[in-house]
Amino acid sequence: MPSYTLTINSRKHTVDAPPDMPLLWILRDLLQLTGTKYGCGAGICGACTIHEGANAVRSCQIAASDAQGKSYTTIEGLSGASLHPCQQAWLDEDVAQCGYCQPGMIMTAAALLRKNTNPTVAEIDAAMSELVCRCGTYQRMRRAIQRAAELKRRA
């Protein structure tokens, strides 16, 4: 089985995995980083969203062979000593209901705010439009992203 070296949350890891093994399963099963969730396995729902550089990507759609040598951030690596503004805003706005999709939602929101610290409602809706929350907490997510943007602008 081939070995792959990738950087996850600023730490280098070498894993033995089949070339077509999705990065999602490398994170969850091989590295025990279970914050990234399996939702659909087809890149549709967004539960498995992580960052590749500054971009939100679906980890279920990235093969081990394509992840080789790249750097990723998961929900576990999003914040340092304190909560990321999106994480804090999610708590403040009581967004999570079942909570399953929330890591992917937070990672998508954080990628949006990295590029745009003052998004309009339309820009928030567009960024979040390809994610699925079965509990329907979309209004609270929108408020949380607006709050997180304000927290980032004040920081």
Overall description:
With about 160 residues, this protein is α+β, with helices and mostly antiparallel strands. About 40% of the residues lie in helices and about 15% in strands. It is built from 6 helices and 5 strands. A hairpin with a 2-residue loop joins strand 3 (about 50) and strand 4 (about 55-60). Helix 4 (about 100-115) crosses helix 6. The longest helix has 17 residues, at about 140-155. The model has no long low-confidence stretch (mean pLDDT about 95).
Question: What's a concise summary of this model?
Answer:
By secondary structure, this protein is an alpha+beta fold. The protein has helices spanning 23-30, 64-67, 85-92, 102-115, 121-128, 138-154; strands spanning 3-8, 11-16, 49-52, 55-58, 71-73. It contains six helices and five strands; from the N terminus they run ββαββαβαααα.
